Automatic annotation (TrEMBL):
It is found in: Cytoplasm, Cytoskeleton; Nucleus. Signal peptide: none annotated. Its main location: cytoplasm. Residues 301-313, 373-383 have a biased composition (Polar residues). This is Protein regulator of cytokinesis 1. The keyword Coiled coil applies. PANTHER family: FASCETTO-RELATED, PROTEIN REGULATOR OF CYTOKINESIS 1 PRC1-RELATED. GO terms for molecular function: microtubule binding. It comes from Salvia splendens.
Length: 383
């Protein structure tokens, strides 16, 4: 603004260019000057407010369309006063009308560009939304969402600003949900990490050469020690997860899912599998213990055969003569089955189920047993 033009409008004598030596200092002149000052202050306030609104619109459009920094720097003289007060703006020309007009033209140009790039901008918002849900392990149908966005834009039934505002609202809600799931998800990650170490520890324990002095053996041993400590914490971690998940579901009235699978179902399945593995480990330990005891003292596991078990004992005495293997009897024992106490067929053609055994079988001497075996060796074998 030109100073002399402004004061001349108050009183012509105030302009030095007129060559008038005297100046008007009447009350009307002083009141006119005071009124002009107030008008200029109000004009300055309005221009600053307008410029700040344009600067805010510019920044929003730039962020929306990822405008490069080089293009943004062309309007630094506009955005530099976005948060300044009226008294802080003192640079000459900072609130010039042509500067405000320039900012208005740029905002209008970016608005038109935004309309032409609406699909690209909306898809960018959708990608941001999907990324938030992905980090929160929440499954959404991204393809269906994109088809809906295309349908809304092509139909023209929704304003671009309204569509973007709705998507921004969805992003805000997604961030809030992700924040509410964070504590549970952190525990899920710890649980899964512990399960991986548990699986590695099982493979490590099955390795018979794990204590050999090979490269990296000491590192595996240290890892196994840490893994055992971590595995022992799994039951408490699972219980804590179940409690927090149930509280979360009761608070929101929905099921807590992890990549589309209910988390409580995952935890229940893991608990059952873990119980099965523990039972299998216990069975294997008992079996191994029994084998070790048998190998140390096999006589402790043998007992005096009862008369009802004599047939199997007799058959085990002569596997070589009758062609059997590993002490088991074959059909070739049919000839002397009656002598050995096995089932026989009576004269009527019916099978006799009575067990026949020598009365003094327990007291039989080695010579009698040998003579009995030699006697059975001479019998002809049946096909």
């Amino acid at each position: 603004m030109d100073f002399f033009t402004t004061v001349t409008e108050v009183h012509p004598s105030l302009n030095d260019a007129t060559g008038v030596q005297s100046k008007s200092i009447s009350n009307d002149t002083l009141a006119g000057l005071a009124k002009t000052v107030l008008a200029l202050k109000e004009d300055k306030k309005q221009r600053l407010q307008k410029l700040q609104e344009l600067a805010t619109q510019l920044i929003d459009l730039w962020n929306l369309m990822d405008t490069p920094p080089e293009e943004r720097s062309l309007f630094d003289h506009v955005t530099c006063n976005i948060s300044a007060s009226v008294d802080e703006v003192t640079i000459p020309g900072a609130l010039a009308l042509d500067l405000i007009e320039q900012a208005e033209v740029e905002v209008e140009r970016l608005d038109q560009l935004k309309a032409s790039r609406m699909k690209e901008i909306a898809f960018k918002r959708q990608s941001e939304l999907e990324e938030i849900f992905s980090h929160a392990h929440v499954e959404i149908d991204g393809e269906a969402a994109r088809e809906k966005i295309l349908s809304l834009i092509d139909s023209g039934n929704v304003e671009p600003v309204e569509l973007l505002a709705d998507m921004d609202n969805q992003i805000l809600k997604a961030k809030e949900e992700a924040l509410s799931r964070k504590e549970i998800l952190d525990k899920v990650e710890k649980w899964m990490s512990a399960c991986e170490e548990e699986s590695w520890l099982e493979d490590y324990n099955r390795d018979e050469n794990r204590y050999n002095a090979s490269r990296g053996a000491h590192l595996n041993l240290k890892r196994a020690e840490k893994a055992r400590v971590l595995v022992n914490k799994i039951p408490a971690l699972v219980d804590s997860l179940v409690a927090k998940t149930r509280a979360w579901e009761q608070d929101r009235g929905i099921t807590f899912t992890y990549d589309g699978v209910p988390l409580l179902a995952m935890l229940d399945e893991y608990a059952m599998l873990r119980q099965d593995r523990e039972e299998e480990k216990k069975r294997m330990r008992d079996q191994k213990k029994s084998h070790e005891q048998f190998s140390k003292d096999p006589e402790a596991f043998s007992s005096t055969p009862s008369p009802a078990r004599q047939p199997s004992t007799k058959k085990a005495l002569g596997p070589r003569a009758n062609g059997g293997a590993n002490g088991s009897s074959t059909r070739r024992h049919s000839l002397n089955s009656h002598q050995n106490g096995s089932r026989s067929i009576n004269r009527d053609g019916k099978r006799d189920t009575r067990q026949v055994s020598p009365v003094n079988y327990v007291a039989m001497s080695k010579e009698d047993a040998a003579s009995h075996i030699s006697g059975t060796d001479t019998l002809p074998a049946t096909p």
